[in-house]
Amino acid sequence: MGKRHSVSDIVAAVYCEQKLVFDKRHGKARSADIERKAAAGTFEHLRFQWEGYTRSPGRLLAKLGQERPSWRPRQTSDSRCFIASQVYGPQGVETNALRAWRDRALMPSRAGRAFVSLYYAVSPALVWLLRRSPRLTSAVRKALDRLVNRVGGAR
After folding, report:
1. Neighbours of 86 (CB within 10 A)
2. Do residues 28 and 90 make contact, with C-beta atoms less than 8 angstroms apart?
3. N or C: which end of the chain has fewer CB within 10 A?
4. Which long-range contacts (CB under 8 A, 24 or more apart) does 69-75 make?
């Protein structure tokens, strides 16, 4: 079975086929503003969803009951990894090692998934800072190098 396409990919193909081909070859390059807006939209969607559950305890219990089987590994890895992509590049060996660690070690646990959600909400703003501060980028690279070594990646 081939890779599934998201609705965003399909709309992008209709809107601008050349951009879709460029993104597939070189990775999606979105501005910090677009990254922030996407993260804010995801956060608001989740907040709205959970706000609905808290207004109806029965719905919340039903939702928690549905999630009881816990996490199931996805067929494809989530390609988001904002900070590592900024520091190492979207297809860097280190970036891919951190993605694999996220999928292998963080996503199976509820706490790990919560951490990843928080990361996705906060990291676009941090990427904005990294783009403006070579010193901060250097410090983050050193910290990420240590993490990559611990999780079994390159370097």
Report:
1. 23
2. yes
3. N
4. 70/108, 71/107, 71/108, 71/109, 71/113, 73/103, 73/107, 73/108, 74/103, 75/1, 75/4
Residue 83, Cβ density class (10 Å: 0-12 exposed, 13-18 middle, ≥19 buried)? buried
Distance CA 59, CA 122 (A): 29
- Residue 29's contacts (CB-CB under 8 Å, 6 or more residues apart) are 23, 90
Worst-scoring range by mean pLDDT, 26-35, 84-93, 109-118? Answer: 26-35
First-residue to last-residue Cα distance in the chain: 34
pTM assigned to the model: 0.49
Q: In this predicted structure, what is the pLDDT of residue 72?
A: 47
* Residues 81, 98: Cα–Cα separation, whole Å: 8
Distance from chain centroid for Cα 35: 11
